[in-house]
Design a protein that fits this description.
126 residues, mainly alpha, 3 helices
Length: 126
């Protein structure tokens, strides 16, 4: 399990790097939420598809489907499970991007507060 998790973490960082090349950090929580929600909904759709396919496979198993039909059902399960994994990784990457964006916004806010205090002669200490 740890080896797979390390690979998923690596793939998440790879997805994050690709997303950061195309789009800047999030401008705030609302933008982050919208993007995470979109990715999460795509993952949910894949999960729903997977559940239907597994159900169909089970039905075919009980009905003794021919090997060719069983093969098609299993290939569909495989492809959908891979798509689900990709969507889950994309969701994780966008959550990571939100973390990085929040940290960046926090640093910017703190530096602006400090600059304002420096200009007014306040030290921020009470």
């Amino acid at each position: 399990m740890d080896a797979i998790k390390k690979d998923v973490l690596r793939l998440t960082e790879k997805e994050l790097a690709a997303a950061n090349k195309k789009f800047p950090l999030f401008n705030g929580k609302h933008e982050a939420y919208a993007v995470i929600l979109e990715e999460s909904e795509e993952a949910q759709e894949e999960m729903q598809n997977l559940e239907c396919l597994v159900s169909d496979y089970w039905k075919g198993t009980k009905e003794n489907h021919v090997q060719e039909d069983t093969r098609k059902e299993l290939e569909a399960i495989y492809n959908t499970a891979v798509n689900l994994a990709v969507e889950a990784i994309q969701t994780a990457a966008m959550a990571r991007k939100a973390i990085v964006s929040e940290e960046s916004l926090f640093r910017t806010d703190r530096s602006q507060i400090q600059e304002g205090a420096d200009e007014s002669g306040e030290t921020g200490k009470h």
